[in-house]
Specification:
The mean pLDDT is 94. The chain has 9 helices and no strands. By secondary structure, it is mainly α.
Length: 209
């Protein structure tokens, strides 16, 4: 088991496309976890939005609506913009949605931001999940996915802890603003994630095994 884990982590870490994607995902998920951990305090009375418990449920349903829209537009967007630009759009939209509660507690803009957030998540997933499967040898798919998700999702408990700390020390709005900045900072990953880099990874012959 240890050898399998080491091989999966090594493959992801050495890969010129998977490594930056995993790190970018880890940062984004950490930021999202930070805000989701405290979002109920922002949305539900006596928080700034002042919603009831039922209103909070309706509000968060916007994520599902956005995800559904994303399933319709992801492929046409990828075909029109290319994969690297589609991922960049996902990052920018994700950062923008986190910034909205930093500036307003009005239900309509916040609800719209959740819809866009769901859309941005699907854009990212449609491109990256299919890409990972295409550029990884069949024998390593399971180990690669486990290792990639360890890096990409393992930051979420840390993010929740950080979110609580930031909300307690700096306030809820500052927490959203910092999360938005962290997500936007992952645009630096596009120094490595380009359409040419993706095409090269796909064209590279998978090692036998």
């Amino acid at each position: 088991l240890r050898d399998d884990v080491a091989e999966g982590l090594g493959y992801v870490w050495r890969h010129p496309v998977l490594r930056p994607l995993a790190i970018m995902l880890g940062v984004q998920n950490m930021a999202l976890a930070a805000t989701f951990a405290v979002f109920v305090l922002f949305a539900v009375d006596p928080g700034p939005m002042g919603l009831s418990a039922a209103g909070f449920g309706i509000l968060t349903a916007g994520l599902g609506v956005g995800s559904l829209i994303g399933t319709w537009v992801a492929v046409p967007t990828e075909r029109r913009l290319g994969r690297a630009r589609t991922l960049a759009v996902s990052v920018v939209l994700g950062a923008a949605t986190q910034a909205v509660p930093a500036f307003t507690a009005m239900p309509v803009p916040v609800a719209a931001s959740l819809v866009v957030s769901g859309l941005s998540i699907v854009l990212w997933n449609v491109v990256t999940v299919s890409l990972r499967q295409r550029i990884t040898p069949d024998r390593l798919l399971g180990r690669m996915n486990a290792s990639y998700r360890l890096v990409g999702w393992g930051t979420m408990p840390i993010g929740a802890l950080v979110g609580g700390f930031l909300a307690e020390t700096l306030g809820l709005r500052a927490t959203f603003a910092i999360a938005a900045a962290a997500i936007l900072a992952t645009l630096a990953g596009f120094l490595f994630i380009t359409d040419d880099a993706i095409a090269t990874a796909e064209a590279t012959e998978a090692p036998a095994g």
